[in-house]
Amino acid sequence: MRRSPDELAKMRRAGRVVAEIHEATRAAIAPGVTTARLNEVAAEVLERRGARSNFLGYHGFPAVICTSPNAMIVHGIPGDYTLVEGDIISVDCGAIVEGYHGDAAYTAGVGAIDAASARLLEVTERSLWAGIAQLVAGHRLHEVGRAVQEVAEAAGYSVVREYVGHAIGTAMHETPQVPNYWPGTPGPTLKTGMVFAIEPMVNIGAPDTYVLEDGWGVMTADGSRSAHFEHTVAVTDEGPEVFTIL
Ligand code: MG
Ligand code: MG
Predict the structure, then answer these.
(1) Mean pLDDT throughout 135-162?
(2) CA 96 to CA 46: how far, in whole Å?
(3) Domain of 209?
(4) Rounded to 5, what percent of the chain is helix, strand, coil?
(5) Ligand 1: distance of its center to the CA of 239 in Å?
(6) Per-residue pLDDT tens for 166-210?
(7) Which among 14, 140, 195, 223 is least surrounded, fewest beta carbons within 10 Å?
């Protein structure tokens, strides 16, 4: 659906809070830090900014961020896991401001990481920006996934099929979905005022996944590392506007 300028202003504010959570959690990532600590850092930002979490309580999710290390793709529950040098860690979070949602994710290295992991992060983030570049009025939504897939697969990686991006507004997950691959049928035509969370999940190995016994953490079936980058982005007359960036 198309958001009014007033709604977009609220989403811009929600996006800014999410970007501030990214900045604060990134600064806290280091060997020896638990994922529970990253969750505390995020909760402090939400509190300070007077924003609500759209993750806490979502289908019973117990935290304000998802933390997904190494072969975990998405939806990890923060807890006792202690970061070690060489890990990669995905942090996904959101915020609600005046009823409007922001949602974004990044993957970062913990200390020095190997070249294969660094390349995975670089390619996945580049695939996100290739997808974002397609959010232009008059384009079709499936061009986003096609662009993401092209970048990821050209690098020899695979994109996850079971989890996708989404429209966002007064709920975190609105329709339509935004697959990170060519879905087989053309998507809707993009119009000014539409807002989407674009979020490639890219695996070094095969795209197959499984869910941990906790019902949340999504893993690569082959144990290969996975990265996840996401922004909340509006279609505007001037092109894509990324809300979840400082
Ligand atoms: Mg997210
Ligand atoms: Mg999302």
Answers:
(1) 98
(2) 9
(3) 5-242
(4) 30, 30, 40
(5) 22
(6) 999 999 999 999 999 999 999 999 999 999 999 999 999 999 999
(7) 223
Give the sheet arrangement for strand 195-198, strand by strand. Answer: 174-178, 165-167, 195-198, 231-236, 239-242
Q: How far apart are CA 237 and CA 8, in angstroms?
A: 13
d(CA 69, CA 217): 10
**Residue 174 is part of a domain; what is its CATH number?**
3.90.230.10
Of all residues in the chain, the percent with pLDDT exceeding 70 is 100
Compute the distance between CA of residue 165 and CA of residue 216 in angstroms, rounded to an integer.
17
Output the pTM of the full model.
0.98
C-alpha–C-alpha distance, residues 173 and 189, integer Å? 19
In this predicted structure, what is the pLDDT of residue 62? 98
Q: Which ligand has an atom closest to residue 65 CA? A: 1
Ligand 2 centroid to Cα of residue 229, in Å, is 10
Whether 28 contacts 37, CB under 8 Å:
yes
Centre of ligand 1 to C-alpha 85, Å, is 25
Written as six digits, the tokens of 121 are: 């992060």
Tally the domains of the chain.
Answer: 1
* Tens of pLDDT, residues 59-78: 999 999 999 999 999 999 99
Question: Average pLDDT, stretch 34-52?
Answer: 98
What lies within 8 Å, CB to CB, of 49 at 6+ separation is 17, 20, 95, 97
What is the Å distance from ligand 1's center to 226 Cα?
15
